[in-house]
Amino acid sequence: MIWKYILLFLATRYCFPVIGIGINVTEVQILKKKLFENYDREIKHTANTDQPILVLLSFSLLSVFELDMKQQALSTLIVFKISWKDELLKWNKTQYNGLDKLTVTLQSVWKPDIIILNSIDKHKTLINYGDDTNYVTINSDGRTKWNVYVNLETRCKVITNITHLKLKPVILT
Q: Which of 104, 88, 102 shows the shortest CA–CA distance to 43?
């Protein structure tokens, strides 16, 4: 008898992670249709179009693959965490049975242009292609979150002669 509850728990926890208690697929489809009915991803969406959109960006270094001292190049794996507020992608979560998050493809929404200036690949842009295989999460207040993993090769000046640095000895007790 208890195995039925365990199976039910596992099915709801791992098979349907986007849909919470009391939220069904139809409500998600209705919300998505309403949000994107007249949405144009080519236009930035702010209350005042003269105002810039505040884009928050942080990144984490996941791995260093190589440091080529001769070429002054660093090869890394980085995750960029990017978020912004899209004024047209807001909804009242109480009208959608408490649904407060929606996950859609990146190609569905406006995204900021982010360029890595010191990239060896001549000003690498984050995601010029493959937007249909990347996803964003939209909160009911319009906050859009995008995590993108990038293998990055950047130029970096490597100091090989450290004799000119003023290093002071440190005594640990």
A: 88
- Residue 100's alpha-carbon distances to 9, 19, 89, 96, 172, in angstroms, are 22, 10, 12, 8, 52
Euclidean distance between CA atoms 17 and 122, whole angstroms: 39
CATH classification for the domain delimited by 2-155, as one of 3.90.79.10, 2.70.170.10, 3.20.20.140, 3.40.50.2000:
2.70.170.10
Largest CA distance in the chain: 74
Tens of pLDDT along 118-150? 888 776 777 645 556 789 999 999 999 999 888
Among candidate residues 15, 39, 16, 22, the one with its CA nearest the CA of residue 93: 22
pTM of the model: 0.72
Torsion, Cα of 33, 38, 41, 44 (10° steps): -120
Report the distance separating Cα 144 and Cα 40, nearest Å: 15
